[in-house]
């Protein structure tokens, strides 16, 4: 079938190949997974079931259930935010939809979108689908994968109209402190950039507090924040996220959302409401389990002599490997049955690294670490 | 959270985790972990470690019962004294003072139902302060101390995802 030119401007996902290789084998331990191993907290699942029993299967308001928007607005005050649930919150089908809608709402054909990299693999295609041009802004291991004023300047981000970033970061696990994020904010103010900030891993911050760019002086009016339920509440398959921003920005996004999506899945919205109201203890428990696994894997990497930057957020480590990362990952999978994702898949600054997800039980982590160690020793 | 609280949490997740792995998980030295565990044990915070067994998966017969106990108190005998008389029997696995229609909730474990019946009627009921016993034999166990006894849910995640 004849297809639009924009489809070919985006290649197939680099993760796909590893997925297929991993699926061919039986005994694979996967550290290549971008979602928690926990099931969603029972209270959230139970609320979804109850909503179905009660026949709540219609559309909701375009922007999402009012009660859910109110609960979200209340929940995010912990990051120093204040958003009006009626005008400044949009409930979406995962952060994925929110990012796509935002790019279409704020990027005109030919606009330059600066993307801090390594980055989640959907941002770049999203920009392309919106007709924009991607300007990669590499972050470096030597700077703890933090986005800096200088990196933005060097990459030519002053010419961009939008900046897309994600902290805590997938794939590096990097977080940014208040003073570091303020430097990025300063750049955005000076060069009049609109900022799209994916903060889906905000609650998975293990040292210090999550610092949002939207909470910096003069940033609220130029920032859209994305967050959701997939990671901290282990609800990936329920597909529920949200965007926060000034009323005019959310209205622009809602214009697209109301035609393309109408409303986010109703059942998932009921689960999300319960998640916010009743599942904070579950989140706390999952966060401390992730933190123990993070410490464990950092210790194992250090003991086996695999240099690894001390990631403080999300559930990824980003160790440095000798030689080509893709070849290393392929060998590791073929010879030892451990699946990871090569860092080069995530754009500039990712080459020579592996993304190792520790969202897996301790027993598997222990076995995987043993296998990685054996693989390293025989090379 | 302080170190001993973190240690406690890690032990509650899996008490069999070795000292070296606990040290890695908590970012502590092995020595600090060993000292921390010793302190928790000495202070009586950690009272023991046990396996949670699903007897259905073994060849052994096992009988369990929850027993309600009512007691009378007098000037010389309080709940504590009565409890200790009962708790010392090895068949008693759990004993708790509870609010509501009866005083103690006692869990009993033995090889057979008959053994439990005999234990309750011959050892517990005759205790002078015990005025009434109501025995509920356990027919099935679904969850024990936070662990579901049926097969866990399979990891149905895609093996590699963004």
Short note summarizing the structure:
The complex is a heterodimer of chains A (379) and B (162). Chain A has 379 residues and is an alpha/beta fold.
Strand content of chain B: 15-25%
The fraction of residues assigned to DSSP E strands of chain A is 5-15%
CATH topology label of the largest domain in chain B: Alpha-Beta Plaits
Name the assembly state: heterodimer
Number of domains of chain A: 2
What would you say the CATH architecture of the largest domain in chain A is? 3-Layer(aba) Sandwich
Number of beta strands of chain A: 12
Intertermini distance of chain A: 46 Å
What percent of the residues of chain B sit in helical stretches (DSSP H or I)? 25-40%
**Low-pLDDT residue spans of chain A:** none
List key phrases describing it.
heterodimer, A: 379 residues, alpha/beta, Aspartate Aminotransferase, domain 1, Aspartate Aminotransferase, domain 2, seven-stranded mixed sheet, three-stranded antiparallel sheet, 13 helices, 13% strand, globular, B: 162 residues, alpha+beta, Arc Repressor Mutant, subunit A, Alpha-Beta Plaits, 2 domains, two-stranded antiparallel ribbon, extended
Please provide a written account of the structure.
The complex is a heterodimer of chains A (379) and B (162). The N and C termini of chain A lie far apart (46 Å). In chain A, helix 5 (94-106) packs across helix 6 (123-129), helix 5 (94-106) crosses helix 9 and helix 11 (280-303) packs parallel to helix 13 (362-378). Chain A is built from 13 helices and 12 strands. Chain A is of the alpha/beta class. With 162 residues, chain B is of the alpha+beta class. Chain B folds into 2 domains: 3-42, Arc Repressor Mutant, subunit A (Orthogonal Bundle), CATH 1.10.10; 55-139, Alpha-Beta Plaits (2-Layer Sandwich). In chain B, strands 2-3-1-4 form a 4-stranded antiparallel sheet. Chain B has a two-stranded antiparallel sheet with strand order 5-6. In chain B, helix 1 (3-13) crosses helix 3 (30-42) and helix 2 (19-26) crosses helix 3 (30-42). The longest helix of chain B is centred in the N-terminal third of the chain and has 13 residues, at 30-42. The interface between A and B is medium-sized, with 30 and 21 residues.
